[in-house]
Each structure stands twice: as structure tokens, then as C-alpha cells.
Amino acid sequence: MTTPVPASLWQFLSREVALVCDASGTLAWVDDRAVRLLEAVPGQPLRALAAQGTEDKVDKLITLARDERVEGWEIILCVAGMPRTFAFRGAPHEGGVALVGSLVAEDYAASLSQVSETMSELAAMHREAERNQRELKRRADELFRLNRELEESNRGVRTLHAELDEKTESLVRAAEVKSRVVANVSHEFRTPLHSILGLARLLLNPVNGPLAPEQQKQVQFIRTSAEALFELVNDLLDLSKMESGKATLRPTRFSSGDFLGALRGMMRPLVPADSAVELRFEEPETNLTLETDEAKVSQVLRNLVSNALKFTEKGHVTVSAERGPDDTVCFRVRDTGIGIAQAHHTRIFEEFTQVESPLQKKVKGTGLGLALSRRLAEFLGGSLTVQSTPGQGSTFLLTIPRVHPEVQEMAGLAERSQQLDPARAPVLVLEDDRQTLFLYGKYLARSGFQVLPVRTVDEARRTIQRVRPAAVVLDVMLEGETSWGFLSELKGNAATRDIPILVVTLMDRENKARALGADEFWLKPVVEEQLLSKLASMARTGPMRKLLIIDDDDVHRYLLRQLLKDTPYMLAEASNGPAGIQLAREQVPDLIFLDFVLTDMTAFDVLDDLKADPRTRDIPVILHTSRQLREDERQRLAKETATILAKHTLSREVAIARIRDALHKTGLGTDNGESRRG
Questions:
Q1: Residues 652, 665 contacting (CB under 8 angstroms)
Q2: Quick one: residue 317, left, alpha or beta (phi over 0 = left, psi -120 to 50 = alpha)?
Q3: What number is the average pLDDT over the span 131-135?
Q4: Helices H / strands E in the chain, number of each
Q5: DSSP per-residue letters across 343-383
Q6: Residue 315: exposed, middle, or buried by beta-carbon count in 10 A (0-12, 13-18, 19+)?
Q7: Which of 237, 245, 238, 243 is nearest to 187 (CA)?
Q8: What is the pTM of this model?
Q9: Strand partners, 572
Q10: pLDDT at residue 653 above 70?
């Protein structure tokens, strides 16, 4: 039988205290444990036992427990001078309050403290999340506003771009109209001016009868005015060409010594024998060889020398040439004339601009010479500058590349075309305009083609003899000749008639081009994507293609061999269906010519066997037959073959065209040597 636990042990083990307080919170009774743990005595206020700062919580417990029962009310009381947590239950008792408190264990208190800290952290995190959410909302609102403003700005930019495009088109049209008007009016002026000048020369010629001195003077005035007007018309035409980009470069190879000699001969008559101005030409120390447009260089220097002679009353005008930096040539025209103020160094190169001076009133001019000269210098790839001081003369410096950039580009194209790249399909381009040739070169070089540039029909013939191109791009209207005859030659020659030819020209002569055999006809200008797409569909850029002929007719197999002779196709033959199917499986040709009726099976049987084998199911088939097909047969064959040809209408051109079309449909006509079947 278990021995009862002594009361003293229960007192030690128990962690509860019992208290009775009156309505004001003063202890009326305490048990022994309360005395031992809290050192509480009757008559002492309960709030005096509370830890500092928690007294209000004790008062609230007393207030609540006077009226109703209270559970789990935690307050902190001092035990041996240390704050400890007690969980109290209370109830009303005789106008006061009866309380029973349980000392909360330290580990539980630590857990509560940790939970409290965690809750505090969670509350802080919650507050931070709310702040972040408010900040995100603010930023989202700001972003929405910015997006709205950006959309409005984009709409404004698009509207502005549309207006700019419209203005640009309007300016382009206006420039074109102006160029056409200037060109047309200038040409219309030239005819009567030629007549006036011619008639003036006739009247001044003594052979046609003498004129009175006054009449001779009047006719001379007419002639001088007509010559000035003729010069103005020529300058306007040249400016119009430069502005419209229609000026043509005609490069030649010439030496600086010969050039200055010819210029001396042209300019000497401008200096009267009794003139106080001497025209000098300095021989270059090194005779330089130039490759550029000699006529345009001469035109610039003639303008500069003519101006220098006009504005130099005495002294000399000196023309010289020397080697410049970076493989350039510098032409200088120095004079001892009136000079030009620094403020006018830019204005003198503007159209119809002349500097006011006493000498200017004596000489006549259009104000176009220097403007045109600078445009010509830029066209030649160089520059025209001036150094001048009033009263000390002027020096005009024309600096141009010794070899024009277009000539260098053309030489580079020609040099690269001599070394054929086996990975690129050669395309012969017959075009006399260098800029167009450069464009073709840039377009095609990026797309697996090698350009073979030629500018004359003779060059094209020599190139065709050297290499067989995959395609030909042909301009009809060349400088001094046409290429209609060359087109006819290519399509009339059995060795070249299958080469696809694309005619690109300014004249709308499509009917004639098609009649002579052109595969395609376009009007200039050509868009890059359009050109590349068409060449990719026309040109042969892959390896030699294998063709299989399945036909039990020996004569027709021979005929097909002759029609496809000298073409880039390797032929294999089978005289019956089973042999043809076996060859197709072994060699996997790129295309099959199939007769409709064989001795041992029909085309439908052969097609079924071919489609059943993964190796042969994708091979395109051209059906050729001499039989009149029923409508149901034709419909089925149209679904299973690339095309249907009648034997009696088959020709070399038709056969090659249908083979090319069938290969293109399967992607074999435009690759760079990779087979469709991997």
C-alpha cells in the first residue's frame, strides 16, 4: 500500500498560489505557498507584488474578476526579486476576488517569449510587406503613366515619321520635276542657241559678204551673249545631272604630264597676246598615272583657270600637279588676282552666288562655275578647297584619288571573278553601269553566288568560253551597243541555251526579250530580295543531279539522252519497271522520267512501289506518255507526279524547264550541294 505524500512535500512541489483580495485589490488572505514564493502578507496591495510596468495589468485583472470569472490571465510577479510569469484564474468572492495563480515554467515562458518575438517579427514583416506593396503599386501607377506617355510619344513619332515620309516624297518629286524641267528647258534652249551662234559666225565671216562696222559690232554682241547663255545652259545641265545622280563616270588611264599639256593647249587662246597676265603650267616632278574621268577633271580645271584669268588684272596664273597623301593627286591653280575675303570662302561655292567687287562688275558670269566644280570634285571622290587673301591672290586646290574608287572596286570584282569559288554558283552580270555592278556584287556575295562582272558583249563572250555560269543577268541597253544579239546567241547555241537569263533594263521590251528566250524580264531598279529570290529559283547552285529514265522504248530513251546532252544531269536508264524500281532504290536519283505504259507493269504500279519505300517516296517523278489519258487517270497522276508530258511535244527546252521546276519544288534547285534526302 502506497504511503501518502506528506503535506510538506506537496507544499514544495506545488507551483500554485491562492489569494483573496478585496474590491480595491488589497490582499485579505494568502496561502502558505503565496507567503513562501511571493512573500505576500494580508493587507498588502497585490499590485505591489507586480513587476515594474505591469501594475495596470494587475488592476485590470481585479476589475474583471469582481464581475465574472477570468481564465488564463498572465501577470508578472516578483519571486525572490526576479520577475516571473503567473497564469491566474479568478472569480468574484464576497465582494472581493478569489485568485489562483500557477507559476509558468521557464521553458514555457521562453517559448512564449520566442513566439512573442516571432509574432513581433511577423508583424514587422507584414508592415514592411504592406509598405513594399504600396511602393509597388506606386511604381506600377508610375509605370502605367510612363507607358501611356510613351504610347502617346510613339504615336506622335509615327505621325511625325509619316509626315516626314510625305515631305520626303514631296521633295523627291519636286526634285525630279525640277531636274526634268531644267533638262528639258536646257535642251530646248540649246537648239535655238546653236542656230544663233551658227548664224552669227556666218555673218561675221567675210566670205559671206562684208558688214558695216556698226553691224559687225552688233553681231559680235549677239554672238557673245549667245555664248554666255550657252555656257549657262551647259552648267545647268551638268548641275542637274549631278543632283539627280545621273552623272556617268567614264574613267580612262592618262598621265598628269599629257593631261596638263592638253589643258595648256585648250587654255592658251583665252590669254590675248598683249595681256598683262601670264598663264603658266608647271611640269610635274613625277609623271603620275591616273585612272579616273579625264573629261571631268579637265572641266574642273578649265573652270578654275577661266575664273583665275577673269579676276587677275596683272601677274600670272599657275597650274601645277603633284602627288598627294594616301595615293591622291593635287592640282593647284594659283593666281595673283584680287583675292577673296575669308567670309566669302564658303559662299563662292553656292549656286548663283558672286562676290561683289569692282572687277566683278566688269566680267560676266553665271555664278555656277565653282558650285559645279565642287560637285564634280566630290563625284570624282575628292574635294575642292580655296585659300585666299584679298589683294594677294587665290589658290584653289583640287584633290582627287589617283585611281577612282569605282575603278578600284571594278578591278577588285574582276580580279575576284578570275578565281572561281567552288562553293559559290557563278552568275554572269552584263552591265555597263559600275554602280549597278557594285550593287549586284554586294547583293549576290551575301547569298552564295559569285559575280562575274562584264561591261561589254565581247567580255561576256570571253567569260562564257572560260566558265559556264549558273545564270546570266543581262542589261540590254549598254554604252554604244545593245545585247539583243548576245541574248539570241545564248539561246540559239545548244551548249548555252539552258542557262537561265534574267533581263534587267530601263526599256520596257519584255515581249522582245521573251521572244529571244529570256527566262525573266524586269525593269530597273531591282530590289535585292526580289533579285536573290529569282536567281535562287533560276540558277543551278547544287552538284550534278542524277536522273533515272524508266521506259521500255529504246528509241525514246535515246531521244531523251540526246535532248539532255551537255546538261548538268547524270542519266541512268531502265528498260522495265522492276529494273527501274531497283535502280531507284540503289542510286536514289534526284528525279525520275517514267513512261506510263511498260511491258510488265503500269506507271501506277511503279509509283505504288516507289511510294512504299522510304528511300524513294520523295523522289519527284515526271510522267511522259504518248497515250491519251482518261480523266480519272490524269487526276490521280497529277497528285502523285510532278508533271505530265506528252512524248510528241517533248523538246530540249521543255524537258529542261520541267526538270528544273520539279527540282525546285522539292528544294533541290536552290541548295548549295546538300541533298534533299540528307
A1: no
A2: beta
A3: 90
A4: 20, 24
A5: GGTTGGGSTT-----HHHHHS---S-HHHHHHHHHHHTT-E
A6: middle
A7: 237
A8: 0.47
A9: 548
A10: no
